[in-house]
Design goal:
The structure is a single chain. By secondary structure, the protein is mainly alpha-helical. The chain has one domain. The protein is built from 5 helices and 2 strands; from the N terminus they run H-H-H-H-H-E-E. It has a two-stranded antiparallel sheet. A hairpin with a 7-residue loop joins strand 1 and strand 2. The longest helix is centred in the last third of the chain and has 22 residues. It is globular, with a radius of gyration of 14 Å.
């Protein structure tokens, strides 16, 4: 499978869990992180800050420690509001990535002031 489509598939899995999964936002965020935990920063193109944004997201999701499943512990320690902001970040990243794959212009300030916008 084309690596770009693999990344898109994993991000889509995460969005599916976030938007239709059961449980509170922290439980859905944990499931979403599990859906894409195998992705690496290098799986993303260097353009449009994809790598930087993914690495920042993953660092926040694994802030508790550095074990492979540390995102579960880190998410449980964060507030519901912080979890909601991280869920929104995932949605913004996939929106931008999808536009990138479709050859659309990608610009900042989409979903929440500092996010991404379809151009």
């Amino acid at each position: 499978m084309d690596e770009r489509l693999h990344v898109l598939e994993k991000l889509n899995d995460a969005v599916q869990v976030l938007t239709t999964g059961k449980g509170r936002i922290k439980e859905r965020l944990s499931s979403a992180a599990n859906a894409f935990h195998m992705l690496k920063q290098s799986d993303f193109p260097e353009t449009h800050d994809f790598r930087l944004r993914f690495e920042s997201l993953w660092r926040t999701l694994t802030a508790a420690d550095r074990s492979d499943d540390s995102f579960v512990a880190a998410i449980e320690k964060m507030s519901e509001d912080k979890a909601a902001l991280l869920a929104l970040e995932i949605l913004e990243i996939i929106s931008q990535y999808d536009d990138f794959l479709k050859g659309k212009t990608v610009a900042r300030d989409h979903l929440r002031g500092g996010g991404w916008q379809r151009g």
